[in-house]
Amino acid sequence: YTSLVGSLECDQAEIGYFLNEEDVSVACPSHSTCIGGLFGPVPDTGYWVDHSDYQFAGLMYKCSRDTCKGGNSNSTCWNKNKFNKTACHVANLQCVTGAGGPFCGSCLDGYVYQGTLNTCKSCNDSQNVYTMII
Fold it and tell me: Within its chain, how far is the Cα of 23 from the centroid?
C-alpha cells in the first residue's frame, strides 16, 4: 500500500499492484499493466477484461482475433471508481476500430470480419469490395 501526501491511511496500490473490489492490494495479473493508485489492471494488446463490474478487473482473457488493442493506462476509465461507467464504452476502450462486444469478437455495423487479416475491416475499404463479372 501507499498513500497520497497528507492522507490519514494507506489507500492506494503501489506500481505493479491494484486494489481489488475489497480494497486489498493484490499483484498485477499476467498480461496486464498496473500503474498503482486507484487504477485497476490494464490489459496488454491481445487481451480483454470484462469491464461491466470491477470484481472482474483482475481477469485477463486472451482474444482469438487481432481485435483487442489492450488498454490505455492513461485513461481514467481504469480508475476503480469509474470502471463500469457508461462513458467508458468497451468498444472504444479495448477494441480496435470496427470491433466490439465480449473479447472484441464482433464486428460492428458497417464492418466485416476479414479472416486473412484476423480483424474487422470497413465495408467501404477497397479490399472488401468485390467485383462480380456476369
Answer: 21
Q: Using 50, 70 and 90 to split pLDDT, how confident is the model at 4?
A: low
Cα gap 14→124, rounded to integer Å: 46
- Looking at residue 91, what DSSP letter applies? H
Cβ atoms of 50 and 63 closer than 8 Å? no
Q: Residue 23 is which amino acid?
A: D
> Could you tell me the three cell numbers for 61?
482473457
Contacts of residue 18, Cβ cutoff 8 Å, sequence gap at least 6: 25, 26, 28, 34, 36, 39, 40, 41, 57, 58, 80
The model's pLDDT over 11-29, given as tens digits with 9 standing for 90+, comes to 788 999 999 999 889 999 9
Burial 8-25 (b: 16+ CB within 10 A, else e): eeeebbeeebbbbeeeeb
* CB contact set of 111 (below 8 Å; sequence gap of 6+): 98, 99, 120, 121, 122, 123
Copy the grid coordinates of residue 104: 472484441
